[in-house]
Amino acid sequence: MTQLTMQGTWLNIGSGPQGAGLRPAGLVSKPWRELRLDADPAVQADVLAPAHDLSALADGEVDAVFSSHCIEHLYLDQALPALREWRRVLRPDGLMLLVCPDLQAAAEMIAQDRLFDEAYACISPYDMVFSHQGLVAQGRAQGHSFMEHKSGYTLSVLRQLVNDAGFAVHAGMRVRERFELWLLASNAPRSEADMRALAAEHFGLAPA
Questions:
Q1: Is residue 126 part of a domain?
Q2: How far is residue 37's CA from residue 136's CA, in Å, rounded to a whole number?
Q3: Which of 28, 68, 92, 190 could form a disulfide bond with 194, CB atoms 3.0-4.6 angstroms apart?
Q4: Looking at residue 64, which CATH number applies to its domain?
Q5: CB 153 within 8 A of CB 80
Q6: Is residue 146 part of a domain?
């Protein structure tokens, strides 16, 4: 691909409240327009829908898809259909950026008998595997279970799912200081140099 700097509409899946969560630098610049999708009516998203059902959106409707700490809130059998939906709503040369907990990093702490020790930002391995208990309790009080973790991933498993979903090319990284997996995927073939440039633009890192 010769044009790396994209612009248009980006779909924020599992967005939470306006302005919440990790927001890739390359998507929050003025040329981009954010379209928020969430299953929780309380966050007043632009599209009220679960992450695995994007039937409200047309094929190729958005230029980029971003999802941070959402896919682990789907059951494992929902993950592949969700990723296929995310690819469907992307334009032919669109880009997906995906972030989720790194269970391999959490397991390393658990193996050291540090289940409830802080991994980063007051988050423990227990929170990464079994959900953040404060947020789960808050959701339960509000009558929903949106914040419960229903699956989890290592980088190799996540990359296989993205491959099975039909993306043309993908590259991922383990961000160890944040106990996260960051993955970029393209609907169209891109060179390794293109993927590294896009990773630098959006995440400030180069993919492995």
A1: no
A2: 20
A3: 190
A4: 3.40.50.150
A5: no
A6: no
Decide if pLDDT at 206 tops 70: no
Number of domains the chain is built from: 1
| 149 in any annotated domain | no
* Closest to 45 (Cα-Cα) out of 54, 35, 53, 55: 35
Token pair, residue 208, equals 């492995």
The C-alpha atoms of residue 142 and residue 42 are separated, in whole angstroms, by: 10
DSSP 203: T
Q: What pLDDT was estimated at residue 208?
A: 53
CA distance 185 to 5: 15
Rounded CA separation 154/139 (Å): 26
Tokens of 95: 């880009």
Q: What gap in Å lies between CA 8 and CA 109, rounded to an integer?
A: 41
In a domain, 68, yes or no: yes
Q: Which of 130, 151, 145 is nearest to 40 (CA)?
A: 145
- Give the range of the structural domain holding residue 67, as residue numbers without chain letter: 9-101+154-202
Higher pLDDT, 197 or 51: 51
pLDDT in tens, 21-66: 777 877 877 688 999 999 999 999 999 999 999 999 999 999 999 9
Integer angstrom CA distances of residue 150 from 10, 33, 38, 70:
26, 30, 17, 10
What would the two tokens of residue 91 be? 């334009």
